[in-house]
Design a protein that fits this description.
This protein is about 70% helix and about 5% strand. The chain is mainly alpha-helical. It comes from Micromonospora inyonensis.
Amino acid sequence: MKPTSRPIGYWLRHLHNLIEAQFEAALAEERLGRRHWQTLHLLHEAPRTSAQLAEALAPFGADGGGTVDDLTARGWVARGDDGRLTLTTEGRTAHTQVAARVEAARDLLMRGLTTEQYVETVRVLAVMAGNLESARSTAATERR
């Protein structure tokens, strides 16, 4: 069966599941999940409030704060006097170590692809998503 004989929905779901499994395997040694990585990386970029963190992670599903609680218990995240979450020294070290595993997982994903192909794939998917979001918005407006 040719890859193009399957619809895009199949490939999107299949790839999503494979990416999740690859991240799980890459992070298993530290007993981390993909959400742990996403949280560590966002806090590596800048301290954030719980609300800012939740907003940034919302597209990946609700977490209920369990990941932050786990990272805090590990001593990797602390809440400042201003209420913002930030990485501790241990958290910055952990981020560096985990980033190397994440990079290896991404390298595997990108094998055989150029950066330009990746960028174009993301661009095409973003256009498709935008088309459907626009249609959804238009339909909702028309129902009012």
